[in-house]
């Protein structure tokens, strides 16, 4: 008996897109990855297959919707069994979190410097404050 394959409606497709977008972006949080590892999700083959399926987010037409591009790096790392095994450790999670924060801080400072025009003149100094009303001469 052949199973009927129902075509996905436009609404279902939109909801699936939103759910997968939210999930992929959650992978930018090392604490969430640690949570998944502690609950055993990273050991389940069906979940590993789902992570492999989500690789399509690396394509530019999908990646442009991501607010946290760090999630793509973690998605790539989660393709490796050794990394998935290590994610159970709280120390590994803390290290990943610290490194992500350092990268974000460095990136923000560097981006700010890069976006400033090189010949930006210094802002003018504020006028000197007067010491009370001007004196009248008699």
From TrEMBL:
Question: Residue ranges under compositional bias (Pro residues)?
Answer: 118-127
Taxonomic lineage from the root: Eukaryota, Metazoa, Ecdysozoa, Arthropoda, Hexapoda
Question: InterPro entries, from UniProt?
Answer: Med31_sf, Mediator_Med31
Primary localisation category: nucleus
Pfam families recorded: Med31
Subcellular location per UniProt equals: Nucleus
A GO molecular function assigned to this protein is:
transcription coregulator activity
Write down the superkingdom of origin. Eukaryota
Provide the alphabetized UniProt keywords.
Answer: Activator, Nucleus, Transcription, Transcription regulation
Q: Where is the composition biased (Low complexity)?
A: 128-138
Describe the function of this protein. Answer: Component of the Mediator complex, a coactivator involved in the regulated transcription of nearly all RNA polymerase II-dependent genes. Mediator functions as a bridge to convey information from gene-specific regulatory proteins to the basal RNA polymerase II transcription machinery. Mediator is recruited to promoters by direct interactions with regulatory proteins and serves as a scaffold for the assembly of a functional preinitiation complex with RNA polymerase II and the general transcription factors.
Similarity comment: family membership: Belongs to the Mediator complex subunit 31 family.
Q: How does it assemble?
A: Component of the Mediator complex.
Gene3D superfamilies xrefs: Mediator of RNA polymerase II, submodule Med31 (Soh1)
- What does UniProt give as GO cellular component? mediator complex
Query: In its UniProt entry, what is this protein called?
Result: Mediator of RNA polymerase II transcription subunit 31
| Lyase found in the keyword field | no
């Amino acid at each position: 008996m052949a199973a009927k394959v129902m075509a996905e409606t436009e609404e279902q497709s939109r909801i699936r897109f939103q759910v997968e977008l939210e999930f992929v972006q959650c992978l930018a949080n090392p604490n969430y990855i640690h949570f998944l590892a502690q609950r055993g999700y990273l050991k389940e083959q069906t979940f590993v297959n789902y992570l492999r399926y989500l690789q399509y987010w690396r394509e530019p037409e999908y990646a442009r919707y991501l607010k946290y591009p760090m999630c793509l790096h973690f998605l790539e790392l989660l393709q490796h069994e050794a990394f998935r095994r290590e994610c159970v450790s709280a120390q590994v999670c803390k290290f990943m979190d610290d490194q992500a924060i350092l990268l974000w801080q460095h990136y923000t400072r560097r981006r700010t410097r890069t976006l400033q025009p090189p010949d930006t003149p210094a802002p003018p100094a504020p006028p000197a404050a007067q010491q009370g009303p001007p004196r009248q001469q008699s």
